[in-house]
Design goal:
By secondary structure, this protein is mostly helical. The protein contains four helices and no strands.
Length: 65
């Protein structure tokens, strides 16, 4: 496992501490969960392309159903 160091404002650190406390987890766990969620999201361009194809062919799909 690797370590990353970042600089954040005092305001953001306070918000992270508050959220972590509400969730009963450490700040590190909260940040890691956020990063994992971001990395697990599908690529926007793929989703946009998929939506475009579905919208473009909606009438055809209705007729085939």
């Amino acid at each position: 496992m690797n370590t990353i160091t970042i600089n954040i404002t005092d305001e953001h650190l306070l918000k992270l501490q508050q959220k972590a406390t509400r969730l009963s987890i450490s700040i590190e766990e909260l940040v890691l969960m956020s990063v994992e969620e971001l990395l697990n999201q599908p690529e926007t361009s793929f989703k946009d392309a998929m939506d475009d194809v579905l919208n473009k062919n909606a009438e055809l799909y209705k007729r085939l159903a």
